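Quick one: structure for this chain?
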Amino acid sequence: MRRERLLDISFHTLNTAFFALFALCCIYPFYYILINSVSDPIQMAKGIYLWPKGFSTTVYREMLSQRTISVSFGISSSRAVLGTVLTVFSCALFSYLITKKEMPFRKTIYRFVVVTLYLNAGLIPWYLTMKALGLKNNFLLYILPSLIVGFFVILMKTFIEQIPAALEEAAVVEGAGYWTVFAKIIFPVSLPIVATITVFNAVNQWNSWMDNLFLVNDPSLQTLQLTLLNFLKQSEALAQETTRQMLGNQTTQQVISPQNVKMAITTIVTAPILLIYPFMQRYFVKGIMLGAVKG
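Got it. Here's what it folds into:
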């Protein structure tokens, strides 16, 4: 008995130590990026691993002072919020409809959606299609093409099919129609899987920039990711200009290095997503497991 207790204690100790080390390995890269983004470039070149050296927020002040970055942040935020809300609603409603036997050709339509997971026409046909639809230099480019996502439809459809039919039948007996059943029964019951696809889609929307690169020339419609990429390309010239100002004015202003800019960009674009996950985590695991029980 005592031996078994010692084995249990040893196992739990090793298990805790292993997962603590694993968590540290996951967290440290973000911490490393943060402390290097607020450190002096010269000290940073020597190597900074635990604490920031020569603490400075110059790179953040310089980046956030750019009007284009504030505008792009608003575009990316609007894209992430509106795109996610509309995509979740569209996928949920579409998934509910294709579970109804009364819907004509529902199996054929569902197969067409699944096929999109495996077949892609390529970049040029996609570009020509978006341009023909009038989505070039149009904010709707960020919303309309992703309203229906095959992977989300599969998860949502599978989840809805596991909801007891008695719930819907009781509502129909009381005179509820399809819209009422969907809005007051199906959607509220499906919140775990809704939260799951919300996280997936919010991350995708926030990180997307290829459509912006090929189809948007208007700076007022550029997303944060593309704007920061352009800022990064200009960082070397910015560093040289800052150095010239230092030599000319004999000030103690710090040089902004491209490496500082890279670290700051990573911090800025990662922070919003890191803030979303803690609020969605309790639904996330439950939703993805329940939505993948059967296909």
